[in-house]
């Protein structure tokens, strides 16, 4: 059975028809206005209706950044779109032409599920997926099942606290993992280093071409690939936090595989090596247990579509 | 179907027949020698054989402190008994007179399962159990299933890191949660306070009756119940660490109920109130999600027997 | 001998004639343009010249936020004014009508010296002054002498690190004391609490009258004075960081008195009590040494003028 | 004028005649019983009397581990000898045959003074001395004067807190610098690594020749000199803590020179390089100030004698 997956971003929506092997057969993209909730509904429904004319579709899955109700029908809260206890599945069903069931999934869960079913973790039974981007998103698979939690809010891994009294987080707390293990953290650390250690940051500032405040993640990756000592340290430090936090998760969940997604994956082994080293150094009971593999995600930006579609079929 | 549960400690073994409602119908206790593995096998088998003569028994579950293989047949590693990849289930089956299947379970998992099936969490679907004793043990139930992990090593919650560069742990790492949220931590903090703030620690030292180094957990609880300011602070601090760490676990697992077991439960609300307050203060997305309940365990020392027996039936 | 003290702010300059008892006999205020260095010189020189016509003046002291050379002639670096290795004393002397020697002092040092000579610490020999404002400034007196350090940069107490991996600081590092012990920290913590614990922050948000992002320090103080639990906690937390950091300084310097200046002093005992409690709880070797007193500063905004004038006489 | 310096250890006493250039002209050593205070007095007095027969001596300085009164006459408290408000100088004067004035100094202060007057810091005016041994001792020189503090208890640098909630310290607190920057910390970290990362610790355990618990500081140094990766990391980590803590001290005191004494100096650049790197990386306002030099101490075990003698002359 084919299914449609929809990846709903703040200003863009990507919609694809996905087959049972996780392949995207057709795809359309639409722009939206983040604070116009009804417009988002309409754009989604039209795109789905359009694709459903060309493809026989048995289910629709919507991937949304936010808290999703356990019955997979509503978004309880979203940080970037004005959904509050919003019955998103029902609204889309009401607007659709074909009579196809709709479910909502958290976007990080959808992406993780794509990796679990058709990507880096397709042979695994217990997986931790980390999406290292603006924030740190996650998905957890235990014994082949996605962990959604009692109220649908599980796998908010970025808000595990890793430093008491640590960096402020947008969630109102201090020391959240995503403040140390995200692209945002990498950039902020690079900019701080350019202030605190200006001589060492020369190459970074050059690449940024506009002073410390314009350093970006790709600048750091490029400088590190050139061998710049500070840039290598910054990626290594990011990797250390990813690996050490993962070891804490492993103390709880004992996964066999940790999948790293998000833009920082472009750094390749400059990131993965320190992740693996830190994971192993920090893993409880090393020597009395196997060590989980740590691999890059395979589906990039399309993971949300693929995972949402596949979850809709279940 | 009745089942036998066996709780294997370092020097004592408790064996009970458990019915399907989680009641213990009969129980025997035996002493063992911790480093004589064959003796432990023999003592367990004899006790089970003896009880099986009086009761019809369909399965035997062994609760052991250590890493248990995912097939529930072997102990991979135990901190206090000389088991290393030890085929414990097979050994007991070989020695038993009745032909009854035997499984091995981690002791904290067994205790948690008892609470989940017949205790504080019997109405829950997603639970975190914390056993706050010498160390910090745990059990995790997700959607009605015990989380064992890929290699049977999940729910080692005490080794989630809560303070980078924090207290040394016996596992070789620093800052493990059990170094802040255990009876051992409480006692150590009390003794440290007696050195650092001698005037405030007078009542504690009096109760200990032998100087700072003899302060025990019950001393702290008693002093706190009398209203001693330092003792109340120490319990409050312990509670804070339990609650804050639980909030990190909740970011991953979104449980509906957190069950607190172990000796520190004797402190009642002097402990539970700060646990709940810290959990709520530290919980991600408070206001956009329900808050898990936090309750004391109901089965005390017998939880291992009850849980192991019930798990053996499954 | 009378002396003139000048307190140079980013946009305002206050100039006063100070007698040997630390009294201000006359005072004028002027506005300046922060990035027009020559204008600042001119405004200072004119104000001093004017006051020197009415009062016999033997020396002029300039209090400036920034690093001051050990010979007290130049500002090496200033965060808010465009001074870089700027020969400030010479420039003012060149523009002055009377022939009076000029010295430059760091503004926090000047304020601390005013408290030491004529204020809260006038009977002390060893003092730590903390100015808890936008940042955390300091002054250190050891055996009756101001500690300037080898290169004039001592007493930058706000940049002692108190939390590894802690809050980002404008200096480019993490975990600086001023990120925990300043008015800015208080406000930021209050705003974070309004996000993380909205129900508890109701009174604070009411007083702010414009949502979490408009909460100010005076809101917190007022709410705390009304008995609001969260506000009391926030001040208590600020006090704890002031006290605990002071205990670290005391391990190095063993002061007899710690003077707290800056706007947060308005909170009175709501702040001072937790400062004292935390200082004592964290002080090394309590019971084997006297405990320093902790008192509020007495000179408020005029401390810079008074201290700069008095230091110019020495 | 020649003076005698006495270095009083727990079980050994070293006594030397020191000339004005800091050279030891004669030296004797004696054994003592740590808890027999009168015996210690007698042994010191006899050794001094004996040396004073051969050398004209104008003053005697006693270096003692403990808190020394500001008048340099008494030991207020000592961790290893049963002195409590003990009038040590008077007792020795009473027992001496020659009529020579006696003063008491803290042993770390004495060692630091030796380096300041005749060793690594002889050209400096502002110095921080760190003695990295069993604990972390220190001495502070500001503008050519030893900082003793109001009550004689300054320069207890090892008890500056560097990690909130960090390692327990014998002083009763958590996270004291000496728990991260001492020989004891190095050994403990090495032993922990041997538990947590057994494969990487093979060479260390081999050198220890008796399992993880027998690893010593010299094992780590030797392994590091052979290029062992873990050992190099351990020294680097020790160096990082020394350097980062020193940067915090520099925020307060702006020293021109930091002198590293104690047994760990044997590691040479394997230790010094990471110290310097971390100091610079963590130093506030790098780029706007000179960076202090960091050098090894020059006087080894004799620093206490030399410094105490010289301080007695002042």
Automatic annotation (TrEMBL), chains A, B, C, D:
Enzyme Commission designation: 2.7.1.2
Short name of one Pfam family: ROK
Class of enzymatic activity (EC top level): transferase
SUPFAM superfamilies assigned: Actin-like ATPase domain (SSF53067)
Keyword field contains Transferase: yes
UniProt keyword annotations, A-Z: ATP-binding, Kinase, Nucleotide-binding, Transferase
Name of the protein described by the UniProt record: Glucokinase
């Amino acid at each position: 059975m084919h299914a449609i997956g929809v990846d709903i971003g703040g200003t863009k929506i990507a919609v694809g028809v996905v087959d049972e092997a996780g392949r995207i057969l057709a795809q359309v993209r639409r722009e939206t206005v983040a604070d116009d909730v009804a417009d988002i509904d309409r754009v989604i429904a039209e795109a789905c209706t359009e694709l459903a004319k060309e493809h026989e579709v048995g289910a629709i899955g919507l991937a949304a950044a936010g808290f999703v109700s356990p019955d997979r029908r509503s978004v309880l809260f979203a940080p970037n779109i004005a959904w509050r206890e919003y019955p998103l599945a029902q609204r889309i069903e009401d607007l659709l032409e074909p009579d196809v069931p709709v479910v909502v999934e958290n976007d990080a869960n959808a992406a993780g599920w794509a990796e679990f079913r058709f990507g880096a973790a397709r042979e695994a039974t217990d997986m931790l997926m980390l999406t290292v981007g603006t924030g740190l998103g996650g998905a957890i698979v235990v014994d082949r099942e996605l962990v959604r939690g009692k109220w649908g809010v599980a796998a908010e891994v970025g808000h595990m606290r890793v430093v008491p009294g640590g960096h402020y987080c947008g969630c109102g707390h201090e020391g959240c993992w995503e403040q140390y293990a995200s692209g945002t953290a990498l950039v902020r650390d690079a900019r701080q280093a350019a202030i605190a250690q200006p001589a060492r940051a020369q190459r970074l500032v050059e690449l940024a071409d506009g002073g410390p405040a314009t350093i970006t993640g790709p600048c750091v990756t490029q400088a590190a690939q050139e061998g710049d000592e500070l840039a290598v340290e910054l990626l290594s430090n990011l990797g250390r936090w990813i690996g050490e936090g993962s070891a804490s998760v492993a103390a709880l969940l004992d996964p066999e595989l940790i999948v790293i997604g998000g833009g920082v994956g472009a750094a390749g082994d400059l990131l993965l090596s320190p992740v693996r080293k830190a994971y192993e150094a920090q893993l409880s009971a090393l020597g009395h247990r196997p060590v989980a593999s740590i691999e890059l995600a395979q589906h990039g930006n399309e993971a949300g579509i693929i995972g949402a579609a596949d979850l809709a079929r279940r």
